[in-house]
Fold this sequence. Notes:
The radius of gyration of chain A is 24 Å and the shape is globular. Chain A has three domains: about 5-170, 3-Layer(aba) Sandwich (Rossmann fold); about 190-360, TPP-binding domain (Rossmann fold); about 375-545, Thiamin diphosphate (ThDP)-binding fold, Pyr/PP domains (Rossmann fold), CATH 3.40.50. By secondary structure, chain A is α/β, with parallel strands linked by helices. Chain A is built from 23 helices and 20 strands. In chain A, strand 19 (about 515-520), helix 23 and strand 20 (about 540-545) form a beta-alpha-beta unit. The longest helix of chain A is centred in the N-terminal third of the chain and has 15 residues, at about 50-65. In chain A, helix 3 (about 50-65) packs across helix 19, helix 9 (about 190-200) packs across helix 14 and helix 17 runs parallel beside helix 23 (about 520-535). Chain B is of the alpha+beta class. Chain B folds into two domains: about 1-80, Alpha-Beta Plaits, CATH 3.30.70; about 85-155, 2-Layer Sandwich (Alpha-Beta Plaits), CATH 3.30.70.1150. In chain B, the strands form two sheets. In chain B, strands 5, 6, 7, 8 and 9 form a five-stranded antiparallel β-sheet that branches. In chain B, strands 2-3-1-4 form a four-stranded antiparallel β-sheet, with helices on one face. In chain B, a hairpin with a 2-residue loop joins strand 6 (about 110-115) and strand 7 (about 120-125). Chain B is elongated. The interface of A and B includes residues 122, 147, 179, 304 and 309 of A.
Amino acid sequence: MEKISGSQAIIRCLQEEGIKTIFGFPGGAVIDLFDALMDSDITNVLVRHEQGAVHAADGLARVTGEVGVALLTSGPGATNGVTAIATAYMDSIPLVILTGQVPTPLIGNDAFQEVDIVGITRPCTKHNYLVKDAKDLVATLREAFHIARTGRPGPVLVDLPKDVVAKMVDFPEKKPIRMQNYQPNYEPHPGQIEKACKKILKAKNPVLYVGGGVILSNASEELTELARKLNIPVTMTLMGLGGFPGSDPLSMGMLGMHGSYTANMAVANSDLLIAVGARFDDRVTGRLDAFAPHATIIHIDIDPTSISKNVKVDIPIVADCKHALTAMNAWFNNSSDFNREQVSASHEPWLATINEWTKKHPMCYLDEGDIIKPQYVIEKLDELTHGDAIITTEVGQNQMWAAQFYKFNKPRQWATSGGLGTMGYGLPAAIGAKMAFPEKTVIDVAGDGSIQMNIQELATAKQYKCPVKVAILNNNYLGMVRQWQELFYNKRYAGTVMEVTPDFVLLAQAYGAVGLRATKKSEVEAVIKEALATDNTVIMDFVIAREECVFPMVPAGKATTEMLLV
Amino acid sequence: MKHTISVLLQNKPGVLSRVTGLFSGRGFNIESLSVAETLEPSISCLTLVTRGDESIIEQITKQLHKLIDVIKVTDISDSEYVEREMVLIRVKAEAQTRAEVLRVIDIFRGKVVDVSPKSYAVEVTGSASKVQAIIDILKPIGIQEIVRTGTIAMARASKK
Lengths: 566, 160
């Protein structure tokens, strides 16, 4: 067999997986790999900070459903990536992170730029490897991709010592991967499906509670079919937005801490909660004993550890969401007990109650003359992009307003750090998304605080002619924490006042991007239109009502029905 | 409640750290842990004793199973099983207590494995409670050092 260098073998593995773009930052330990990349058809996007590399790969993975790849050097390169790896882990995003490592004879020696990245990332990766022997290199990389994308997806890190990568290796033909100790279960148990479906037929007040698993398993169509077939209202978690069309009459929007009044009331009053690819996170459930107190709970999830972790489940279905929903749809289609008109009609009183809740407390905000309300900016973004843009966010108020007021009608048009809540996620993720879909409008909804955490990536956007748009909702505060201080800490704004914030318009210009500013409501539309029409990276600086809060809000530790409203 | 869990895992560097990291990261208890190679050198068997209510034990077994390097997880205490632990005890044995120590060791079917003018080193095997019992008995005489292996366990074979 013809031998090739370890670095060439790594590149061939990437090509084998269909990888066209990776995100990386070089260093001594990975020079060989960067050198080999130059001769390949794979584009390396040179980021300005390693956290940006992994977030960008994550953004690409979320919008495409493919595995994102980042390439970092040893030591600080690898540790700089850790926050972003943990971000992907919490949201189950398939990534393969390649890190350089010092040569094997130096491992454990406190060598220059040496760090035990496998040890550091053990709790925040799905799995990780240190390749000590060049003959394991190819098999390990193939296994890494397999683990990252199958089952409940997640980031897999492969640590590559410099001498291993430099060795000559065989490149055997790829065979289907079978691991004795890792066999995720995709197919639902037919008995559980039947039990669940029969329960659904008996329910008077059912609710579908949809999480990121529906997006990850590409099950939106099957979910939409089920909801419409049975006339069941749907609420989505932050991660599940787009899993069901946001403008569908059955959509109640997001639930949980900043969810809609309707969604939280519906869950609290439901007699059957059908959780699909969701994990009963504390931001969703609020006080646990008051969460869906009257409901029987059906839970579909591919990860058995998610089931009965926080909330006791009555009918667990361990399976891929797409497979399980397909089986449920088929059961209803073939069941003589199921009469579509009759079931739909039987849910009408429940839907009428739900509509009453929406009428009483719709998702809304108070207009204040020509002051810019952040919610208005999001509504305008939605309107002027026809709800069709890819939206990424930073974390905090900006993220919640984007989640509440942009109508996500399709899966994979929304990338946000849900589980970890990582400020600085949005801009690099937008770059990753734009690299995957150059023809689509990609907007990072940001705050003036979080945008500064990875603002250096503006240079990356410029270098790769990646005209992402950044909409900064600028209130000169770390707004979400300030909101908690206003509501629960006697307005003592400790550490949340941004006394110095750069002039974002000038800053954009310094990077060769375009900076636009709106200080009045009447200017918002023109700014967005100009940004969308500009073939360049654009920062839109919206100077918003400083002390606007995100409502509804369920205070931490309270029941989800105890909402603070506008 | 106490549970004894047996885990088969890949015999590779870092695997034990994945298991212990899981316990510390998620706030589960480990009372004892013992690990060694099986007949198949690429696979290790780990026995751990932990405490928790039903839902915690369910999470522990599921989370262990989720680790990629873990092959099989069995809660042995779900069925009939035998458990053993070994302890080495260095106990003070001076003129007036030497005979007494030997009698105690005999009652527990222990063995003296090291002798010095002022102490015995004793080996005792049995269930964790038996091991605890001899420790409690010898304590007043003067224990200088103990080393316990932690429990190992095996499910009983079917009697049918």
